[in-house]
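Weekly structure sync, notes
Attendees: PL (lead), two postdocs, one rotation student
Agenda item 3: pending single-chain targets
PL asked that the sequence for the first pending target be pasted directly into the notes so everyone works from the same version. It is reproduced below exactly as submitted, 162 residues in total.
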Amino acid sequence: MAGAAKTMDKAKAIRLLEFFPDIDEEIRARRSAIADLDQYYNTVSGMQYDGMPKGNFHAGSQTENRAINISNNVSKAIKMYQREIEALQKVKIEIIKEVSRLNLKHKKIIFGFYFNGMKWEHVAECTNYSDRQCKNIRDEALGKLLVGFRKNKVLTEYEIRE
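Predicted structure, written out during the meeting:
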């Protein structure tokens, strides 16, 4: 699907809002993976400094070749995780920017329901609206957010992994 234009519809906007509370955990998981890779596969930490001659990195030693390949693959994986962390941080910032452009009434509903994971009854209680009014306000807010999300390249291009 390379080259296909990325679009933003209401369903994707809702998925982004629902994904928002999980972004920090996703970032933590990737940082943990980087730390694990760095700790267990960093070939520099396994070097011996006893003065004995070591391999010359010639193609003849299978052990040397495997160690070099592991190091290259690990560094590629670490770079991939770092790119994913940067993308997640950008998505989080852009979602906050777009939600911050809403008026206070819409922000309260979006923050309560999507970001804080409240049930409609609790959102209604906190905002002094009925459940039905909260849902209507949410629909208005989603319409406004959708306009902003469509204009936002970072949010339009980001694909949430299922």
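Discussion points:
- The chain has a mean pLDDT of 84.
- Helices lie at 10-19, 23-41, 62-100, 104-115, 120-127, 131-151, 153-157.
Action: rotation student to compare against the earlier draft before next sync.
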